[in-house]
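Supplementary Text 2. Reproducibility record for the structural model of the 87-residue chain.

All settings were left at their defaults, and a single model was retained for analysis rather than an ensemble. We include the record here because the model underlies the residue-level annotations in Supplementary Table 4.
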Amino acid sequence: MVYTKLQRIAKIAKERPNEKFTSLIHLINKEMLIKCHNELKPNKATGIDEVTKNEYEVNLESNIENLIERMKGLKYKPKPVRNLEQA
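Retained model, structure tokens:
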């Protein structure tokens, strides 16, 4: 199960903060990302791209597939986290 693998990686990262992980993308799949999205609180703040959870889930499967494709193709560039104190 993917969560078990991710939980194991989180445990290693916590126990050995200097550990380097070279590739984790093989653990990411559509089902896991959809599950993570569905677990987000409905009133979650928008991201730096100003997209709400509700807006993202209008085309959720397509958005997730596109995200995975960009991640696996090394074309995904995450934006910095929005600092709510500056908003």
